[in-house]
Design goal:
single chain, alpha+beta, eight-stranded mixed beta sheet, flat
């Protein structure tokens, strides 16, 4: 571990030197690449330097203890030694986590898809609750939301909603949300007061850059049509809605939320690119995905990940057996506790793989 950290510190020093002389970097793109690599190493190098400082202090205290004969001063040194050992052990654990391979998608924005599952109107209303929850969480993080495509029911539920969350590190926090979200509550339409179980599916895709997924325009069929509102009613008499079909894979993406056909097509391409990226990565990482399925879950849309129980006011994440009795707060977008627990569990499981 220490030799790896030494190498990273050397690399960090080289990058620092490069950034101090920007005139030696040939172009802006290369400068940004160097700056990002430097930023990515900043935290681990800072923690490693703290670790080395504490190790140095430990050695000094140990030397003093060998030479010291005053009992009272010895006692003080022994207390300091224990504190330094505890700090060193804590930093070792932090460094092990920081050395884990980073998901290359973690810094990306995300495309989220929410669809009503089993449960009819109640499932669609719950899908809307989920969208509101993610919207408020994104707002709290300072991220921006942009709706790509939406299909609502007559009573304000969501049949299907596709939206982008633009923000640094959005994928690192939201990637654990993929799967089936289940709700247990008494619907407003239920006269007998019986609890119904409904579900909605969530998909979280990292946004793909054009350089990552190159789409040949000749392989896309573009259809345009009039957009429609709840219940199929027409809300736009111009043909601004766009449907893209990727002929080699059969993937279909629609977008109708903008009044401009050009904007709808651009948004649909973002979604198509992300779905193609997901498809390619699933094929490439089939073995890796199988390993992760036993950890925080595969993220598969058919996998039940969380239950929101209204009568008991609780939320249970089935992957890590976490139950919180604060349903109202969570639905207001306070997801930090759940997300941090999922990240910590994922890191602990990955650490087991390398130890």
């Amino acid at each position: 571990m220490l030799s790896k950290l030494d190498n990273l510190e050397d690399k960090y020093n080289e990058l620092t030197e490069l950034l101090s002389r920007p005139e030696t970097i040939s172009d802006q793109q290369k400068y940004q690449k160097v700056a990002k690599a430097h930023a990515d190493l900043t935290e681990i190098v800072a923690q490693y330097r703290r670790y080395k400082t504490i190790n140095s202090q430990l050695q000094e205290v140990q030397e003093l203890l060998k030479e010291e004969h005053d009992q009272e001063f010895q006692s003080l040194l022994e207390t300091e030694l224990e504190d330094l050992k505890a700090a060193r052990d804590e930093l070792e654990a932090v460094l092990k986590v920081l050395l884990l391979p980073r998901d290359p998608n973690d810094d990306k924005s995300v495309i989220m898809e929410i669809r009503a599952g089993t449960g009819g109107d109640e499932a669609a209303l719950f899908a809307n609750d989920l969208f509101r929850m993610y919207s408020r969480y994104a707002e709290e993080q300072g991220w921006k939301i942009d709706i790509m495509d939406s299909h609502y029911t007559d009573i304000g539920g969501i049949k299907e909603l596709i939206f982008v969350i633009d923000g640094q590190g959005a994928y690192s926090k939201l990637k654990y949300e993929s799967g089936v979200h289940r709700v247990q509550r008494v619907p407003t339409t239920e006269s007998g007061g019986r609890i119904h179980t409904s579900a909605a599916t969530v998909a979280v895709l990292p946004e793909a850059e054009e350089v990552e997924v190159n789409i040949d325009p000749a392989e896309i069929r573009v259809d345009v049509y009039c957009s429609s509102g709840p219940g199929g009613q027409s809300v736009n008499t111009t043909q601004s809605a766009v449907r893209l079909t990727h002929l080699p894979t059969g993937l279909v993406v629609t977008c109708q939320d903008e009044k401009s056909q050009h904007k709808n097509k651009a948004k649909a391409l973002r979604v198509l690119r992300a779905r193609l990226k997901e498809m390619l990565e699933e094929e490439k990482n089939a073995e890796y995905a199988g390993t992760r399925k036993n950890q925080v879950g595969s993220g598969d849309r058919s996998e039940r990940i969380r239950t929101y129980n209204f009568p008991q006011g609780r939320v249970t994440d089935h992957r890590i057996n976490l139950t919180l009795h604060k349903l109202d707060v969570i639905l207001q977008g306070q997801l930090k506790e759940i997300i941090e627990a999922l990240i910590a569990h994922d890191q602990a499981e990955r650490l087991k793989q390398v130890e």
